[in-house]
């Protein structure tokens, strides 16, 4: 059976405390007990972390009916990125891994656009490239559609050649993913 390394440390310290005598033993045992409380505090599971990700889908929390400011939106994107990274850090995020990574690519692209950060845009593109390699046909459609959407966001006032390129990309998408 798999042994939790933190449990092994706990047991080792507990055995050491039992060998000591008197007040020192009591103090050591109390310290071990407090350490055990923090060790055994379980990290959130994938389902809990996924709920946190989904809770952020509604956008930034706000009181007014005004659209959020750029600063509020930037902070919300950072919260989304952090929640997605926490979810992806779980040893086995399960079948939601693809969607989480796709969401992370989208968030990074939005941050890149807002912050004019080429590194964030590169990270987003790398995630999409990696996702596309092992994706199912349906997942490939999601990646391709995300690429088209990101291209449109980056080129809000496209030249004639850029519009032609976009039209070609959309036609290719329709041909490759007629089921979508």
Shape: globular
Which structural class best describes the helix and strand composition? mainly alpha
Helix content: over 70%
Kindly state the mean pLDDT as a whole number?
A: 83
Question: Would you give an account of this structure?
Answer:
The protein contains eight helices and no strands. It is mainly α and about 180 residues long. Helix 3 runs antiparallel to helix 4 and helix 4 (about 70-90) packs antiparallel against helix 5 (about 95-115). The model has no long low-confidence stretch (mean pLDDT about 85).
Summed up:
The chain is mainly α. It has helices spanning 5-19, 22-39, 46-55, 70-88, 97-115, 118-133, 137-154, 160-176. Helix 3 runs antiparallel to helix 4, helix 5 (97-115) packs antiparallel against helix 6 and helix 5 (97-115) runs parallel beside helix 7 (137-154).
Give the key terms:
single chain, mainly alpha, 180 residues, 8 helices
Write the layout of secondary structure elements.
Layout: H1 5-19, H2 22-39, H3 46-55, H4 70-88, H5 97-115, H6 118-133, H7 137-154, H8 160-176
Helix pairs in contact: 1-2, 3-4, 4-5, 5-6, 5-7, 6-7, 7-8
